[in-house]
Each structure stands twice: as C-alpha cells, then as structure tokens.
Amino acid sequence: MLSIVTIGVRVFALLFGAVVLGLSVTLAKQQHEGKPPSETSFGSFTGAFGIIASGIGLFALWFDKISPLVTMIIDALASIFYLAGGISLVLALKSVKSCTGKDAVSEVTRFTNKILNGGCTTKNGQLWCYVGSDADNDGIHPDLIGRCQRAQADYVFEFLGFIVGLALITLGFLAWRRGGSRTRAYA
Questions:
Q1: pTM across the whole model
Q2: Tens-digit pLDDT profile for residues 27-69
Q3: How many CB atoms are located within 10 Å of the residue 86 CB?
Q4: Nearest-angstrom CA–CA distance, 134 and 76
C-alpha cells in the first residue's frame, strides 16, 4: 500500500517540477535586456532538479540498485531547493502588492520589478523597460499582469514542491524503518 501512495506522491512531484521549470523558463525567456534575474534562473534549476529527483525515485521503485537512503537525501535536497526558490521569488516580488491592481502604484511597482519588466535600460535619459506591450486605455500593461501571475504561480508551485518533498521524505523514512536499509516500498 505504501508504494502505491509513494507512486502517487512521486507523480505529483514530477508534475510540480515540470510546472516550475516551465514557468521559470518562460519568465527567463521574456528577459530582453541583460541576463535573467537569478531568481528565475534558480527556479529553472529547481524545477529540473525536481524532475530528476522524481525520475530517480520512480526508477528506484522497481530497481533495488538505488538505496532508499539515497532517494531520501535527493528528496531532501529537492525540498531545500524548492523552499529556497519559493522564498527568493516571494522576496523579489515583495514590492508588488497586486498583480491586477489598476492604480498607479500597482502599475509602477510591476513596471520596475526585475522579475516582471523584461529588463530595463536608459534611453535619452529615461528608464525604458521591455514590458512587451503598450499600455491599454487605462494605462495598464497587460503583459506585466500576465508575467506577475506566472511569477506568483511559480512560487506557489515551488512551495507545493517543498511540501510534496517533505511527504516523500516521510514516506521514505516510514518504509525504511519498516523494511530495514533496503526496501522497494519507497523511492
């Protein structure tokens, strides 16, 4: 029974890793000026590591060559990376109070945020950010709203990946304790 639960949790971990990787790469690809912010680059790494960790864990379910202790260590690393990535994105977006706010303060905080604006440069003495679209009639940049929502989804899935990682570590510990140092019940 424990291995069925573990397979289900592993599949969620794999999906969360893929979502984090996809969202982070999308945010990084929208950077037109300079290098992508380190938070989005780390998110890409975290998602890829989560996918690899899930793959190793699923592989270990059917092959005894991988020790449950090794998979627990890999899951612990993935959990730490997910937590660090989520916290770094939350801190980078701290100044952004609302992704959909139509007031001037919300728009300015989105416009000047390094995760959302696509990079900025100075042209003719004015700050120029590559937000991707002109403002609509209300002065709102729709691409900034979309990027903001993607960034929020990214850190939410990183925190979910952290929680799933903790669940996998717990399942691994229970199976390891029940079956000794080598068991196929956990991966």
A1: 0.86
A2: 999 888 889 999 999 999 999 999 999 999 999 888 878 888 8
A3: 23
A4: 44
Exposed, middle or buried, 73 (CB in 10 Å: 0-12/13-18/19+)?
middle
DSSP state of 36: P
Q: Output 32 or 150, whichever has higher pLDDT.
A: 150
Structure token digits, residue 165: 């990682």
Q: How many CB atoms lie within 10 A of CB 138?
A: 7
Q: Is 34 helix (H, G, I), strand (E, B) or coil?
A: coil
3-state SS assignment for residue 134: coil
Q: Which residues contact 97 (CB under 8 A, 6 or more apart)?
A: 105, 106, 109
Cα distances (angstroms) measured from residue 98 to each of 31, 103, 122, 139, 140: 21, 10, 26, 15, 13
Helix (H, G, I), strand (E, B) or coil at 135: coil
What residue segments make up the domains of the chain, in order of their start? Answer: 1-180
Please report, to the nearest 10 degrees, the dihedral formed by the alpha carbons of residues 98, 102, 104, 110 taken in order.
40
DSSP state of 184: S
